[in-house]
Amino acid sequence: MIQAHRLTKRFGSFTAIAEVSFRVEEGEIVGFLGPNGAGKSTTMRILGGVFPPTAGYARVAGYDVVDDSLRARQAIGYFPERVALYTDMTVREYLGYVADMKHVPAKEQAREIARVMDRCGVTHMGHRLIGTLSKGYRQRVGIAQALLGQPKVLILDEPTAGLDPEQVTEVRKLIRELRGHSTVILSTHILPEVEATCDRVLIINQGRLLAVDTPRNLNRRLRQLSQIHVEAQAPLVSLLETLRQIDGVVRVEATHTDHNVVAVTVLTDPTKDLRGVIAERVVRQGWPLLEIRPVQLSLEDIFLELVHRPDEVSVNPGG
Ligand SMILES: Nc1ncnc2c1ncn2[C@@H]1O[C@H](COP(=O)(O)OP(=O)(O)OP(=O)(O)O)[C@@H](O)[C@H]1O
Ligand SMILES: [Mg+2]
What we know:
By secondary structure, the protein is of the alpha/beta class. It has two domains: 2-220, 3-Layer(aba) Sandwich (Rossmann fold), CATH 3.40.50; 226-296, 2-Layer Sandwich (Alpha-Beta Plaits). The protein has eleven helices and 14 strands. The protein has helices at 40-47, 69-74, 91-101, 106-119, 135-147, 165-177, 191-197, 215-224, 236-244, 275-284, 299-308; strands spanning 2-11, 14-24, 29-33, 55-60, 63-64, 76-79, 153-157, 183-188, 200-205, 208-213, 226-233, 249-258, 261-268, 289-295. The structure holds adenosine-5'-triphosphate and magnesium ion. Magnesium ion binds next to helix 1.
């Protein structure tokens, strides 16, 4: 339903995204995850027909977003990062205006507007001027306009940004309810967001796609990266050195030092349980071992791991 092939966008000499390729199948909800400046909005703007890519191509519902931009855009509901809402229109007037632009047939407009207002919980705000709405309600109106005309594909750029926790929950619920009706790509830099709503996750950083996988597989992958917390009475530098020499240790980081007690985190090969070897090496040096225990990694950790050390984590292109 969405196909991006080696999308590249340069602004002058700056490359915002490079060779970004992925597919989103019909009915899927896919999360686009990455830190600030990663290239999420740039990719989504290309998909939404805001500007063309410098190289590569994208298709939405089978239409090339450049060569067949009109038909591509008709298949899309786009919620941009900065929604330009008409502050001096009422919610209903604004949605009528968008329905016209989207060529929703006149006799279906009233019903269609009522439908999206209901969906987004803004029915009781229909007569309010947009300029007087709270941020959360404006966001909902922005999502409502994206839903108008029942587009096959929804492109939602940070649909929950700036909302309070209750509103975030509601918007996520709304997105989950779209499952089966629309194909959705939504961007976020919050991991729980994709866990809560998405079938698959695209992870992007500095304009490059790092991983494409299901939240479950990402989770599994993170569990594959074992971490061990070690505390000992030892000189820090020597301890780090000793641990780094162990076969299967990927990385060692000092987390805490207090007088002569040193705490370190050892990142290890997932297939080996290195606790025994670590304990043995520390003790052999004559250093009192105070604690050794495995640490559970969070999705946050795997994300940082992917972003900072992509080569050490197997990337499954998938999709
Ligand atoms: N019109 C533009 N001109 C020049 N540089 C741009 C332009 N649009 C985006 N960029 C740059 O491209 C990079 C990617 O920006 P983009 O907005 O796609 O990131 P993002 O992943 O959406 O980030 P955020 O999470 O902050 O929204 C950034 O470094 C940004 O400064
Ligand atoms: Mg953005």
